[in-house]
Amino acid sequence: MKVVSYSRYSSDNQREESIEAQQRAINKYCEDKGYTLTRNYIDLALSATNDNRPEFQKMISDSKSGLFQAVVVHKLDRFARNRYDSAIYGRKLQQNGVKVISVMENLDDSPESIILRSVIEGYNEYYSLNLARETMKGLKENAYTARHNGGQPPYGYSVGPDKKYIINPSEAEAVRVAYKLYCDGLGYIQISNALDELGYRTRTGKRFSKNTIYDMLGNEKYTGVYVYNKRASTSNGIKQNRKHKDPEDIIRIEDGMPAIISKNDYEKVMHMRNKNKRIGGKYKSEEYALSGIIKCGKCGGAMVGNKYQGGRDRGTLYVTYQCSTRKRTKGCDMKSINRDYIESEVYLNLKEEILDKLETKEFQINLANRMDEGGKELKIKLLSSQKKLDDINKQLENIVNAVSAGMDPTVFIDKSNDLNKQKQQLMDVISSAKFEIIEESIQMERVRDTIKRAEIDKDLTALFKAVIREVVVTEDDFVVEYLIMDRV
Ligand SMILES: [Zn+2]
User: Fold this and answer.
1) End-to-end alpha-carbon separation of the chain, Å?
2) What is the fold, at CATH topology level, of the domain defined by 157-279?
3) How many Å lie between the centroid of ligand 1 and the Cα of residue 319?
4) Bigger pLDDT: 293 or 145?
5) Ligand 1 mean position to 311 CA, how many Å?
6) At a CB cut-off of 8 Å and minimum separation 6, what does 447 contact?
7) CA-CA distances (angstroms) from residue 399 to 363, 386, 418?
8) What is the pLDDT of residues 380-398, one digit of tens each?
9) How far is the CA of 468 from the centre of ligand 1 (A)?
10) How confident is the model at residue 243, as a pLDDT?
């Protein structure tokens, strides 16, 4: 009989036999029984309750090929983690004429074996859930005593021998500098540049991205509050998909870890951040106000609106602009950019470059002068053209009078044609000069009107469209090209 083997090892279960041990037992068993082992399917280092078993899925789908008649496992719990698994996958294999054989549990198709099989499966399921529960208990105990619960400690901290957090002096310095610079009024990109120039790096030796700085400035841990989200891994291993975290799921211990930032400074930064958010936030934000205007700085493609659930437990909604080239062909490595972030940064830039200038006396005077100067020039042009036109009209009138007095009209043909041509040219100049005078003032009024209306309607899209030609973004910077810059 041709058979395959399936082995699985979960790193969080210390009591399991290693893959080598499972494999050894399977090989010996097949040899004893005279089975031909054609392939080994192995899933490694996955948690006891993790649903993702790529090799297992491959084995199930290969069972259709008819190339093997049985799957040999060390123990039944390697094959099925619960009765659901057992029923579903057992049935799929059965349909393909493939049996499940356990090395350790000697089960055949007798009625006794069928009952025994379900007892074993029931026990396995209980064991797996109990293990997850015990692990969870341990994590919670760690959390209640403000101890590190695995993974990377937050930037700025190390883990001490008692698993409590201690300050990492050089990292903590970078955090303090970032807070200080934000209080001084620097934006995320400027802080990123400043940290880079000062030689601060992330743990992986990279420069701080604006997203990292954004997270850093909002992390309450730096004030000494230990926070642990119980929901991050749940008792049955199934990750919860919640938008709002239940406060009961959060273990929060004041002074649970050493503070890097004072409560005062933290509050100040939070306050400034909320204020900055509201500036852009007073506009409608359900839509992508920059769509059609925003371009990828890496490939020149359009950046398009893209929403997705992500984060540690898929509980966070990300609203972003994504490079359309990357979305379509993966031919660009530009990262998605947070919509609220880029819109409020562009708004702040627009406010500084355009809106505030529109309100200053200096600009109003400048504009008036420009209009006056331009107007003067145009008016002089207009007056002299008008004078020339009057002159031509008089000459034409003289010709008409002479002809009506009996002179031969053919004498005047060339002269008359030439005068009419000049007259037409002058009339063109005059009308375009008049138009330019009106146009100049209308343009500025129109821009000002649009801006005012957009502010009243809280229509960020209309505001951006009115004044911006293009926003080019890279991961750490952006450039705004204004339509009316030459006028302002
Ligand atoms: Zn791109």
Assistant:
1) 85
2) Hect, E3 ligase catalytic domain fold (3.90.1750)
3) 18
4) 293
5) 23
6) 466, 467, 484, 487
7) 53, 20, 12
8) 777 888 888 888 888 888 8
9) 20
10) 35
What confidence tier does 129 reach under pLDDT thresholds 50, 70, 90? Answer: low
* % of the chain exceeding 70 in pLDDT: 74
For the chain, count helices (H), then strands (E). 15, 14
Report angle CA 419, 425, 427 to the nearest 5 degrees: 100
- Across 20-29, 107-116, 314-323, least confident range: 107-116
Taking the C-alpha atoms of residue 131 and residue 12, their distance in angstroms, rounded to an integer, is 9
Cβ atoms of residues 9 and 19 within 8 Å: yes
Q: What pLDDT sits at residue 4?
A: 96
Q: What are phi and psi of 156, to 5 degrees?
A: 105, -15
Ligand 1 centroid to residue 310 C-alpha, Å: 21
Residue with tokens 């209306």, as numbered in its chain: 453
Three-state DSSP class for residue 200: coil
Distance in Å, CA 354 to ligand 1 centroid = 28
Q: Which residue has the higher pLDDT, 445 or 348?
A: 348
**Ligand 1 mean position to 334 CA, how many Å?**
5
Ligand 1 center–CA 313 separation, angstroms: 28
Per domain, the residue ranges of the chain are 2-143, 157-279, 285-342, 359-482
* Gyration radius of the chain's alpha carbons: 38
pLDDT(285) > 60: no
* CA distance linking residue 298 with residue 263, whole number of Å: 40
Q: Which helix (H) or strand (E) holds 33?
A: helix 19-33
How much distance in Å is there from the Cα of 410 to the middle of ligand 1?
72
Architecture of the structural domain at 2-143: 3-Layer(aba) Sandwich (3.40)
According to DSSP, the β-strands at 250-253 and 294-296 are unpaired
The whole-number pLDDT of residue 443 equals: 60
pLDDT for 221-258, tens place per residue?
999 998 876 554 433 333 333 333 455 667 788 888 99
